[in-house]
Amino acid sequence: MEETLKSFGITAQQSGVSTGKHWLAGGGPVITSSSPVDGKVIAAVKSASKEDYDAVVATAQEAFKIWRQWPAPRRGEVVRQIGEALRKHKHDLGRLVSYEMGKSLQEGFGEVQEMIDICDFAVGLSRQLHGLTMHSERPGHRMYEQWHPLGITGIISAFNFPVAVWSWNSMLAWICGNVCIWKPSEKTPVTALACQRIVEAVFAANDVPEGVCCLLTGGRDAGEWLAADHRVPLLSATGSTRMGKAVSAAVGARLGRSILELGGNNAIIISEHADLDMSLIGAVFGAVGTAGQRCTSTRRLIIHEKVYDQFIARLVKAYGQLRIGNPLDENNHVGPLIDRDAVLAYQQSIEAVRKQGGTFLVEGGVLEGPEYSSGCYVKPCIAAVENIYDIVQHETFAPILYVMKYQTLTEAIHMQNDVPQGLSSAIMTLNLREAEQFLAAAGSDCGIANVNIGTSGAEIGGAFGGEKETGGGRESGSDAWKAYMRRQTNTINYSTKLPLAQGIKFDL
Ligand code: NAD
In the Enzyme Commission scheme, what number(s) does this protein have (predicted)? Predict the structure, then answer.
């Protein structure tokens, strides 16, 4: 890993605050990042003080005055070059993501691929930031709308997608003409440093003004500074629902804008008409991939009573074949949780399941031994529960899968929707009527609803996000870019008269 760090110019003691050209002192607390893979320290990163923060915001404000005047396709060309740089660094950055966060190497590479994909998407979009034209009721008048940049976009990201979520936001924000201040998760600061280095090189080669790409390493405090700051018109925050409620209140109090991407509690309905082979792969990958630490991880299986017993038997057998261990070894299916706090939360949830009446079909537990010395490796487990249990209503960020039975599809959809979160959902069925009922207005209430695909693994072309306590934000594809811009309606009078709207007479 030392070679990888060196290739990004990251030292053992490193400032984590940058204006895109200069690295500031980093006068805040030092954040030590250690790997959940083997418990070893990766680097000590100096986080931002309030003075650093104010310097970064001032630089970003100045940069915006210049950057907003660059033609959008020219900004797109810079983003295209970032995509090229990411292609070159895919292997190193993917390995670093895997090592610092603990996801499998394949998923580390996949995360970087997602960054490359959003760059490509943003390049095309840089020529398509179009508004509508309307017919005016007044003669000799024309109406249209256009989209302008907003200013500073703050980006708060979570540990589980340490770099992709930043890229979803920043690539769109940049082609829209905004400048960005990124506050990465304090659990994964080193991957953020690597991204900053990659972008800085591209920006330097293109004379992009200092302040367009800022990095603000820090903990909750730094996130709170962004949330409270009226100089930050848009804050995109990804993380827990607890964090989202705090950010939403602070940004709302100053009538700023926020994009909230919060927790999920995602279910797959497995119908009596399902292809059970496909369902098995979808369920197991959804539940144990990234050790259950995706916002779209499958937390609940709602299984038709006619196929329940046979599906559970296959599921239990599949869990028996899972290999848990170092995620950099491609033979393993499941890596570690992010840290020991996450292990504790996993253990407490298992305890709560038992107390509330659940029974374990596959037992959990913390793994011990030399290869698990970080103390972060746990066994994926399965519990038979009722949807109404308090613990089932919560998102535990770990590989705990809840299973339950249903009789009618209406009942299954009700169970699927009957949780506070509304991110991702899926139905496994070969029956057209069932699939359409699930997707209809009275069907799934989630931001993502899939048929014959599991709950995790979204593509960047669609808008990504969820309803209810997931926060309501949308990022990435489709028209998600509109959240990063302000809309302006323009009416132009090319006649020789000044008629008023609604036929109002006002003669002098
Ligand atoms: P977290 O809420 O602990 O932290 C996320 C980020 O918010 C960190 O950068 C943290 O420093 C910052 N933060 C925490 N409290 C804050 C506050 N009061 N004000 C401002 N910033 C604050 O989440 P985590 O443990 O890093 O990530 C896991 C959570 O993220 C899960 O709930 C998961 O579902 C969610 N998530 C959601 C999506 C999505 O797109 N919906 C994507 C990834 C992760």
Answer: 1.2.1.3
pLDDT digits (tens, 9 = 90+) for 416-445: 999 999 999 999 999 999 999 999 999 999
SS3 helix, strand, coil % of the chain, rounded to 5? Answer: 40, 20, 40
Query: Mind listing the pLDDT tens digit for each residue in 59-102?
Result: 999 999 999 999 999 999 999 999 999 999 999 999 999 999 99
CATH classification for the domain delimited by 266-451, as one of 3.30.420.40, 3.40.309.10, 3.40.50.300, 2.30.250.10: 3.40.309.10
CA of 120 to the centre of ligand 1 (A): 26
Give strand ranges (E) for 275-434.
298-304, 359-362, 381-384, 400-406, 421-422, 424-428
ipTM of the complex: 0.98
Q: Which of 100, 156, 215, 393 for mutating ligand 1's site (highest number of atoms within 8 Å of CB)?
A: 156
**Tokens 């793994």 appear where?**
367
- Count CB atoms within 10 A of the CB of residue 370: 5
Question: Angle, nearest 10°, between helix axes 72-101 and 105-125?
Answer: 170
Q: How is the chain split into domains, by residue range?
A: 2-262+471-488, 266-451
Catalytic positions are 261
Rounded to the nearest angstrom, the distance between the alpha carbon of 481 and the centre of ligand 1 is 22
Q: What is the pTM of this model?
A: 0.97
Helix H or strand E encompassing 193 = helix 189-205
| In this structure, CATH architecture of domain 2-262+471-488 | 3-Layer(aba) Sandwich (3.40)
Other beta carbons within 10 angstroms of residue 235's beta carbon come to 26
